[in-house]
Amino acid sequence: MKSTATMLVALALSVSAIAQSADEVIDKHFDAIGGKDSWRKVTSMKMEATVSTQGMDIPITVYQVHNKAMKQEINVMNMVGYVIMTTEGGWNFLPFMGQTAPEPMTKDDLEVGKEQLDIQSELLDYTAKGHSVELLGKEDVDGTECHKLKLTRKSGRAATYLIDTKTNYIVRTISKVMANGQEVDQTQNFSNYQKQPFGILVPLSMENSGLPAPLLISKVEINPTIESSVFEVKK
Q: What global pTM score does this model have?
């Protein structure tokens, strides 16, 4: 009995140490990108970006209102399409892909998309949001030593965060998404962090395994006024 009790205490202390280490990694990350208090002040964001592919520069404008709505506006050969996600639903309208009218998102895309409405970062105050985080040691990402965090969302879906041990910036995330009815890994790489209003840092280069080329952000607005009409579904 005494031996068993000792083992249980050791196990409890071990679990506590792992949780504490994960929180320390997260705290250092937010310290590096402007601080938790500064990020808690971010209620909206607008970004202008470009994806260069097949000899074309494709302008993309992203509108975000924290925990409420998101819109990606895409201009291809003077045809303007969009992806809209709100707490009420999600829609796609991509005329350059042959669509003639807005279409509602699938249930799977909708569930994943709603998780992206948290623009302050799902790592921020993750416990209050119903998420959990584990520290899984370290991993090399293209020659960069990174802390490896596993975040399990309230929904049960998990994501992996790889955070540079020197800069404390997120350099890669890996999440499960649905593609053609199958669950696949979506990898995103982040670089070129630059300071914005409130002293927060935002990556201006993003590589997404679902995009043909990196997304290069040229302008970021923090807490702009974004009218609700921006998120209306229009043809």
A: 0.86
Q: Which two tokens stand for residue 199?
A: 């002293």
Confidence of residue 18 (pLDDT cuts 50, 70, 90): very low
As a whole number of angstroms, the longest Cα–Cα distance in the chain is 75
**CA distances for 192 relative to 45, 91, 167, 188, 204, angstroms:** 18, 31, 12, 14, 5
For residue 55, count CB atoms less than 10 angstroms from its CB and return exposed for 0-12, middle for 13-18, buried for 19 or more: exposed
- The two tokens of residue 28 are 């250092």
Average pLDDT over residues 21-29: 95
What CATH code is assigned to 2-231? 2.50.20
d(CA 178, CA 181): 6
Strand ranges inside the chain, DSSP E: 44-53, 56-65, 69-76, 79-86, 90-93, 103-104, 132-141, 144-152, 158-164, 170-179, 182-195, 201-208, 215-222
Is the four-CA dihedral 29, 226, 69, 189 of positive or negative sign? Answer: negative
Q: How many contiguous H segments (helices) and E segments (strands) does the chain have?
A: 3, 13
Give the residue extent of every domain in the chain. Answer: 2-231
Q: How many beta carbons lie within 10 A of that of residue 173, not counting itself?
A: 18
Cβ-based neighbour number of residue 152 at 10 Å: 15
